[in-house]
């Protein structure tokens, strides 16, 4: 996941630490962010797998009707 720890001209890697207390609103926001990130990664994997398949074009499907 990419964090917003970037400065113009930054050449070195940046280490990001997240300090989140349990049972807080910050923890809830972080958990939702992680779930959304995982879901987006699954969509990317599914799209890559689907593009590897040879699916018929829209014209081919319409011609079969």
Notes on the structure:
The chain is 52% helix and 0% strand. It contains two helices and no strands. The radius of gyration is 21 Å and the shape is elongated. The mean pLDDT is 76.
Brief summary:
The protein is mainly α and 65 residues long.
Give the helix/strand layout.
Layout: H1 25-52, H2 58-63
- Distance from N terminus to C terminus (CA atoms, Å) equals 45 Å
Provide the low-confidence segments as ranges.
none
Helix content: 40-55%
Calculate Rg over CA atoms. Answer: 21 Å
Largest sheet report: none
Query: What is the number of E strands?
Result: 0
| Share in β-strands | under 5%
Residue-averaged pLDDT, rounded?
Answer: 76
Structural class: mainly alpha
What letter string, H or E per element, gives the SSE order?
HH
Q: Any idea what the shape is?
A: elongated
Helix count from the secondary structure assignment: 2
Which terms would index this structure?
elongated; 52% helix; 65 residues; 2 helices
